[in-house]
Amino acid sequence: MALQKILWSAIFLLLNSPYPEQNGVGSISGTIPIQDTWEPIIYLSYIDSFDAMNSMSAEMIVASDTIDSLGGFVLDLDFLPLGDHLVRLHLVKKGDPPTSLVIGGKMENHWFLIVNNKSVINLVYSEGLPISENLTVSGSPFTEGFHQISALRIYPNSLDYESSILKKEFVVEAVNENLRKIADSSSNPLIALYALKSSDYKTNEEESPEYYESFLKKWDAVDTPYFQEFREEIKDDKIPWRILLYGVLTLFAGVVFGKVLGGRKKLHVKKLSVQERKIFELLKRGASNQQISDECHIELSTVKSHVSSIFSKLKIKSRKEAIDWK
């Protein structure tokens, strides 16, 4: 627990660190002494949407530079509009087209940076693969925070849950909550938005629309493509929900009605505490009160109290309904 607090404190400090004072035209320069298997060219792509991070096309490449015999290169950033932006650098193997993108594994050939048109960024690459793990970046303080969020968003999928669905749900909810905390605390709009979009924002937006209205109001003056897209997305999400609600209220038919009931069941389950979720999972397996007491190391009277609370929250009246719950 103490380690977790230290970790989050470090991330918060990182995400809120200001850019150093910068003047003139921005650039990305560095030293990449690549092996003979790589083309001596570095490519810069402008990523105008978080959804396009794993996409590649010739139109996305906005600059390139030949890597000299010492590994040196320089890429100008004066083409960027105001504000912070997401860019991607990549190399390609000899014989591969410039649009070759390798995602994951030791042969991953790209890395992301947070930059603006006045950023002065320097990269130093040491031998080894993947390239991104052997790259030292200076002049882009929010880039490390960006990669911390990327690691956090995939964290639940890296764990072995021993087939426990409830345990995975608990971890996912904890990660999403921490991502929203980063979104609330970051002083950088791009980092804040990336953290929010990395969470279960679509489900949460339906449950807490006021949170998203407040978030967008906070960054109302930010007019980058990322926020333009997000504002439209939030705006468009409200229309299908109204249509669905109208259909439920007027038709009460077939598939629509079934989906609504399923959604309600999901909301009821979310009301259960961590202990109640564990007990509910045992109830679904047909466990007796004594078996639950032994498994959870709690008194029988406590088990009965939890079972009663579960029945109340889930709107069920018997253990058979618990076993049949889907």
Structural class: alpha+beta
The major beta sheet can be summarized as: 4 strands, mixed
On the 0 to 100 scale, the average pLDDT is 82
By DSSP, the count of extended strands is 8
Q: Calculate the terminal CA-CA distance, rounded to whole Å.
A: 34 Å
User: Can you tell me the residue ranges where pLDDT is under 50 for at least 5 consecutive residues?
Assistant: 5-10, 12-22, 239-248, 250-262
Count of DSSP-assigned helices: 12
Order of strands across the biggest sheet? 4-1-7-8
Beta-strand fraction estimate: 5-15%
Work out the helicity level.
40-55%
The whole-angstrom Rg is: 25 Å
Helix and strand pattern: HEEEEEEEEHHHHHHHHHHH
Global geometry = elongated
